Amino acid sequence: MQEPLLGTEGPDYDTFPERTPPSPRERTGVGALQNKKLFLATFAAVLGNFSFGYALVYTSPVIPALEHSLDPNLSLTKTQASWFGSVFTLGAAAGGLSAMVLNDLLGRKLSIMFSAVPSAAGYALMAGAHGLWMLLLGRMLTGFAGGLTAACIPVYVSEIAPPGVRGALGATPQLMAVFGSLSLYALGTRRRYRRWPGFEELTSTSAGSLGRSRTTFGDSRISWAEARDPHMYRPIVIALLMRFLQQLTGITPILVYLQSIFDSTAVLLPPKDDAAIVGAVRLLSVLIAALTMDLAGRKVLLFISAASMFAANLTLGLYVHFGPKPLTPNSTVGLDSAPLWGTEQPPAAPAGLLTLVPLLATMLFIMGYAMGWGPITWLLMSEILPLRARGVASGLCVLVSWLTAFALTKSFLLVVNAFGLQVPFFFFAAICLVNLAFTGCCVPETKGRSLEQIESFFRTGRRSFLR
After folding, report:
1. In the 8-state DSSP scheme, what is residue 444?
2. Which has more pLDDT, 214 or 94?
3. DSSP H helical segments within 249-386, as ranges?
4. Using an 8 Å Cβ cutoff, are 130 and 69 in contact?
5. Is pLDDT of 111 > 80?
6. Which of 130, 145, 196, 268 would staple 119 via disulfide (CB 3.0–4.6 Å)?
7. Closest to 87 measured CA to CA, from 55, 118, 45
8. pLDDT of residue 33
9. Which of helix, strand or coil describes residue 339?
10. pLDDT of residue 225
11. DSSP H helical ranges for 78-131
12. How far is residue 47 from each of residues 34, 40, 115, 203, 293, measured CA to CA in Å?
């Protein structure tokens, strides 16, 4: 009797040939090559965040320098300083709005590469500025590039990273941004402001490196009918609220006006040195978060982060209200011609160890933010957004985030001059309590889960997917 065809052995009829399992050496070699490509692609992508972090805090040492500039075309009044500090966030909001289209039209990789163009142009404008309009336009262009990368890079990294290291790799965009900020603070202690905008070549380098990476993603567009489905809009709403609450903690105005805040309080060290120390603490804290995110989990770090920021903001508010006061302001100075805090006098002479409180409290705030609500909100945004909506929704999150940042940064100086520096800090402390409650009731734990499992959780509501 003739044997069945599928049972026939031989090279011509071996329908499912058995493959020799790879040797341990081959498995190790393949894994090492894949890891090398993964880390190289991640590093090339997040280099753009260095420029973003540098540009974000650029005004911290520059505003005090321009306030005392001998060039009348560059000397800033209080109103001009508030615009110079806040216009970056408007540019970042425009970048997030553009990302809603570019993320899916060009893909993640090309969008990141494109961000190098406005970034380099913005730095060039600020470096050669001969008037306020050049400063504002340059700041807006660097903000546009930052908003675009903020929407594209976290999504790109989360999509190429396996679950076991997605937390660590997901923290690298924030880590690189913090390193950029620290570089600016370090330069601010030694250089004049015209020599600071010098990192556009790094952005160009990152674009070139990313261009050699072959990893790319594209999504089909989500329809309005799909957007009304709960499994689509629930994670989008959570991501939007996280980005909104993250900004309401006060991180952007504190970073933008950090040196000016120290200038306005009695501190033991020179304000520019305090700013550099805070930048170093921020970098260390993000490193800790990157190492513990896949071990401790996202929610634990979010709780610790919100509690730390609450304690820090409350301490800063109490210190400003009850602590050593600056010398009496000059009442003859007008609103538009006054320096940042409405006084031309230096703060009162430091009075002992109590004047370490602003530095220590700010360090605690930055440490808390950098360990949780800084990197994790970006990571969770890229993890929980549905695949079909990820490109558009990530841009929407960045748009909401930076519009909130603009409102806070622009109004920060107005509130300070009208009610005192302690009022914003008390408000930020109250928001941190809201963040604690929001984390407990709304934020899912995504540690060790694939993007497919996370999406299945929102689709089915079965918590077993996230256990």
Report:
1. P
2. 94
3. 251-256, 258-263, 271-296, 298-322, 357-371, 375-384
4. no
5. yes
6. 145
7. 55
8. 52
9. coil
10. 66
11. 78-105, 108-114, 116-127
12. 20, 11, 11, 7, 21
Residues 340-366 have a mean pLDDT of: 66
DSSP conformational letter for 4: P
Who's near 52: CB < 8 A, 6+ residues apart? 145, 146, 149, 150, 177, 180
What number of CA atoms fall less than 13 Å from residue 255's CA on the CB side? 31
Q: Residue written as tokens 């929001």?
A: 438
Residue 445 to residue 383: CA distance in whole angstroms: 10
Q: Nearest to residue 390, comparing CAs of 215, 162, 158?
A: 158
Contact 28, 157 (CB under 8 A): no
DSSP letter for 213, please: -
Give residue for tokens 């220590």.
Answer: 360
- Give the angle 30-36-39 at the CA atoms, nearest 5°: 140
> Residue 336: pLDDT above 80?
no
Q: At what angle do helices 422-442 and 298-322 cross, to 10 degrees?
A: 160
- The string of pLDDT tens digits covering residues 139-156 is 999 999 988 888 888 888
Instruction: Please report which residue ranges of 161-199 form alpha helices under DSSP H.
Output: 163-170, 172-188
